[in-house]
Amino acid sequence: MTAKRVFFVLLALTLVFALGMMAGCEEPAPEEEPEEEAVEEEPEEEAVEEEPEDIEIDIVVGFAAGGSNDLSARYMAEKFADYGIQANVVNMPGGMGTEAAYHVSTQSPDSNMFMWAHPLIMLFEPAAGDRGFTIHDFDPVALLASPTFCIGSKAGAPWEDMDDLVQYIEDNPGEVTLGGQGEGNMMHFIAELILDPDELDYTYVGLEGGADVALNLTGGHVDVGHLSLAAARPLHQDGDLTVLVNTQILVERDPLMPDIPNVIEFGIDAQEPHPLALWGPKGTDPALITRMSEAMSQIAQDPELIANYEGAGMIAHYLDTDDTWDFFMDVEENMIPRFKEWLADYETR
Length: 349
Description:
The protein is an alpha/beta fold and 349 residues long. The chain folds into two domains: 55-147 and 274-347, 3-Layer(aba) Sandwich (D-Maltodextrin-Binding Protein, domain 2), CATH 3.40.190; 149-266, D-Maltodextrin-Binding Protein, domain 2 (3-Layer(aba) Sandwich). The protein is 40% helix and 19% strand. The protein has twelve helices and eleven strands. Strands 2-1-3-10-4-11 form a six-stranded mixed sheet, with helices on both faces. Strands 7-6-8-5-9 form a five-stranded mixed sheet, sandwiched between helices. The longest helix has 23 residues, at 3-25. It is globular, with a radius of gyration of 39 Å.
């Protein structure tokens, strides 16, 4: 074999060897991974809210059956049943409602016993003397009802509104007689906030209650009187007396008689704190309080309850737990000091 031919043979072998080496250095093609099968997600089951168990409570009313305090509690109790709350109304009259309040204040927090009470019981009576409890022995639930009171005038009186009445008393000192509901109590205090005896010369006569005030007004034995709007309204409609102003504190115009102005519209700071709220012994289960309060928020919008309350001379007006406490604390801060001062002055007359 010639040298030239040997050269070409070696060259060819070299090329073959080089190509083989290059082929061995190439990275292998990546294997294709099998596609994952799509897995359908199962829909999440909706959480089902469990209905709360029925519960039984007692609502203590510090007055006899048949009055506005009692009726408003019973109308509320009927509606509580729609929310799984079986409410028994228990009447415990005595001491202007304070005996009932004292009883409830001494109960265990888990007694499921509640007091149906307004500031007269919770604030004014304890301020007048030791009643064995204060408002701070209770936890508020919510506020739902508020009776409206008014100043009524005998038929045919020589005045048409509060401004005329005040002017008449100023021009005729000692001639006008005001019939009120008792003496030395919150009702008397409110009456004298409306007609200040230090500035106006008239005679105050303490009568037995609203019905007695109405009888004395229609009989002409007193010239003006302080009584509930529910008692005064039919007499006003029949022309037997004239309602001059209402003293409602939660609204200015009462739906029962929307044409009657509020006392505050005459610049007289004497709106009457009569709203009724539920109170439990201190330490009552917050969950139960929330449940009852939420039910009361719905009850306040019930057309039947609203109509029943109007028939009893009340407005349905809901305040939640915190707002109820704030309302009563505002009365405690701003009215109770005035009441104590007035009471000390009255006792020295």
